[in-house]
Fold this sequence. Notes:
The complex is a heterodimer of chains A (682) and B (324). Chain A has 682 residues and is of the alpha/beta class. Chain A is 41% helix and 13% strand. Chain A contains 21 helices and 18 strands. Chain A has an 8-stranded mixed beta sheet, with no helix packed on it. By secondary structure, chain B is mainly α. Helix content of chain B is 48%, strand content 1%. Chain B has helices spanning 6-9, 14-26, 31-35, 40-53, 62-71, 89-101, 110-118, 137-149, 158-167, 185-197, 206-214, 235-245, 254-263, 282-294, 311-318, and strands at 272-273, 280-281. Chain B has a two-stranded antiparallel sheet with strand order 1-2. Chain B is globular and about 50 Å long. Mean pLDDT of chain B is 95; it is low at 1-7. The chains are: A alpha/beta (682), B mainly alpha (324). At the A-B interface, helix 1, helix 3, helix 5, helix 7 and helix 9 of A face helix 3, helix 11, strand 2, helix 14 and helix 15 of B. Chain B: Catalyzes the transfer of a geranylgeranyl moiety from geranylgeranyl diphosphate to both cysteines of proteins with the C-terminal sequence -XXCC, -XCXC and -CCXX. Chain B: Residues 13-308 form the Prenyltransferase alpha-alpha toroid domain. Chain B: Its cofactor is Zn(2+). Chain B: This is Geranylgeranyl transferase type-2 subunit beta.
Amino acid sequence: MHGRPRKASKPEDEAASAAKAVKLRSLQSQFMTYHHEKIYTKEAIELSTKLLEINPEAYTAWNYRKLAVEDSLSRIGPDPNLVKPILDEELRVVENALKQNFKSYGAWHHRKWVLSKGHSSTGNELKLLDKFQKLDSRNFHAWNYRRFVVELTNRSEQDELQYTDDMINNNFSNYSAWHNRSVLLSSLLANRADGFMPEKRIPDEFEIVHQAIFTDPDDQSGWFYHLWLLDQTVNVESPLLTSSWPSHGSSVILSGAGCLNGPPSNVTTFCSETGSFPLILYFDQAVGGVSPLTVTIDSELKGNENLVWEPISNKSSQVSCVWVARLKYFSSQPCGSKDHKVKVRLGNSPGIVSSRGYNFSAPYEFVFTVHVQDTAEDSHSQESIVSWTDGFELWDAQSKDLNSLFTLDQLNNGIDLKWRQAAIDSEIECFRLLADSKIGKLTLARLLMASEAMTLDAAVKGVYYEEILQLYNDLMALDSSHHQYYKNEHSVAFLHKVTSSSESLSRHLFRYRDMNNLVCLRLNKLSLSRIASVEKLLFVQMLDLSHNELHSTEGLEAMQLLSCLNLSHNRIRSFSALDSLRHVKQLKVLDVSHNHIGKHSVDTTRYLCSSPLSNSDWSQDGVRGQNPGLVTKYWDAYFVLRDLNLKQLDIAGNEIADDEFSSFVLQVVPKLVWLNGQKPGN
Amino acid sequence: MSSTSSSQMGQLVADKHVRYILMAEKKKESLESVVMDHLRMNGAYWGLTTLDLLDKLGTVSEDEVVSWIMTCQHESGGFAGNTGHDPHILYTLSAVQILALFDKINILDVGKVSSYVAGLQNEDGSFSGDMWGEIDTRFSYIAICCLSLLKCLDKINVEKAVEYIVSCKNLDGGFGCTPGAESHAGQIFCCVGALAITGSLHHVDKDLLGWWLCERQTKTGGLNGRPEKLPDVCYSWWVLSSLIMIDRVHWIDKAKLAKFILDCQDLDNGGISDRPEDAVDIFHTYFGVAGLSLLEYPGVKAIDPAYALPVDVINRIIFTKNDC
């Protein structure tokens, strides 16, 4: 099937293969007769041997041989001297078959089956494996079989690590050896085996993999191993809290649905119809176990005894980086204006665990103030259309809200950062020497990003971003096939840069007068192809991402305060790409006009959207009952829009947005007030 | 794709491929057919799906195919690769997929087939290929795909099945056939597909795996299956569909890949090979056309990246709520 040259067949060849075909057909028929009639004579078994010699892929013949062996064993009894020759014959047949095709699943499995019977010598197996390694060091069947034998013989992980050493020293271009090394080493490090402390071992491994990368920078064998080492260096095992909303030391004004049209203040104002506000916890990795038992809240706000913590993730997942609880702030009696301190504590009781099994252990607490205000009676302001062009004012850069964003970095105090920073600095020095190659530039960019993430010193923070952005620009030119990968990384670095200081962030912050000075972040016309740094943007209520190159809202699910989102003039291809917005319960205003919805036959977010396709959402309702055809045709628009509580939606300028679709939307979102800038029914 | 005209990169000789498939189907006694006798069910799935993608499924006799399929079913409920052979999960899925193409799943005793498949799940959540116990994440995918098409996914322990697949995740973000096994594009497709169908893609580190996958694109524009190996048209399916399922397909050069696939065609006799100028076969013809479908090549119907069947077939099956 693979690697045979294409050539016109000559008559002699055709005659020869026709003859072979007839012979093989006759063998097959005879074999089938023996198999179906359960004939296990010596002659019959020999026929199957012949068949497998010619065609080791004939799986039924391997099954037959197992039945023949079981038949023989049942008749001769348990005497090992009688059993061994029978099993040895099977091993011989397998070895012959493997000579024909050393990638035959049937042959390898038959060998495992024989070995599992326990009468064969495992010493031979390692010798056989060495033979196959020399023929093809990348044969994954052989490596898998090696793992099987190692388990049978209880060989130590250290010995197997030494084996990968030998393989790599022999030829560094052996990805299979590097892979096996990573498996063994991560197990030895996790178990803190003798001589396997990360702070000594990881720098040693960096040295070893350098030889592979520097000898031939275009050979990928060491690239992924190096990336794994970098991950081990940068990522602390136990989970940490990256950010929260409200953040430590901040103040929030809370009021009801009507909201107030008061003077602009330097403090975030949050209005809610339900009288509750989201308390958001953003961790550095996915964790489970966030609950009232593991997170305690001290405050005077009433009605929060049975708080429910939700992970922001799809339905079948119990873990997430982002957890939200909704704290009630209105009591039954009007209370006038009042300040309440809220203290949140976590890490005092065990229970918050990362998906890799490590506990959140460092106790941490943060305190913020909420100022609850009575609502005005008039709630009509919710119905007026939101404009993305008028009514904005710059936000004061001195706002305390922004300063408090950057205090959480102190969480990462100590936690053996020294060896990590030293390793990164050493790697940076090394890779500057490889700055002409693709892998050199890419690794350097990643190392500089890692260094930025680790830097606690505010004076030095942000120093590398210009260089990182330049490296990604270089890579886009150097390796144009992967242009979009580097473009995405560029956008991520750019957003990290924007959010790296309150000064740079505030240049993009505005207040929207018509909605009680809602905080608006403007990131339009920046060629952004990817969303990032959301942990620093949890306070944002209005987000303008128009005129960029986004094709999905992946990452926005954490922005629980978001009520207005502008995604016009981007590259959104389907409603399934907006699935993450289903978690943003506050969202009222959405502009996806002038995108590519309906233009493409391939949906790249088809399985990243909760729906019956991913066996995630079967719920029926009236719309689905009455319009099954349209629900199938516009399935993703149906499932996504149904979960949003939109008042204002813009879909003009998308191929999908014809009359049929627009009227379908109005059925799915009956509470919509504005569609494409008009009131429906006009 | 819309920015590159098809004439610049070569043409898809669809009619020739259709003829190649129809002729291969008839040549039951050629050496190639006889050698592949035991996997005819897979071959039928590859050939018939390709025909449907090119909108030519009507050129075969549905009755002939369906009655042959049923001769391959065992009393256990499983299907064999061909009449007379033993049942196996591989051929059971192909049989169900072919019936799905013809909208004839209803002729099956769905309870029987689904029980055969469900019965192959082991305690640790993994799946065996048949009664002889070979374990491989390919079989996890096959079981999940098959049972989902039969609307009987609740007959297995989905949570444990997912747990086993996740245990096969490697440090490079990819997946192997068993825990600790090296990442390979074929296995990655199976694991990502299984996670997609069970709504469990949150277990995939999309950026890490996406980078590993996009680096499969070689200077030729074709994709290989793992680092430092040669490009092969079949990876146009396994790598490409994986990238699409995790929404990272924009990280490769789609136009270059399309050109590579088109260069693997036998423009005279039809059929597609693993590499340019190599011998063609049904296997690579299917993966080449399926790959072009994922690249939105004009004249090819859209294919579902998880089920490997046309989107219209899957939407028809999934959005009608009939339980097992």
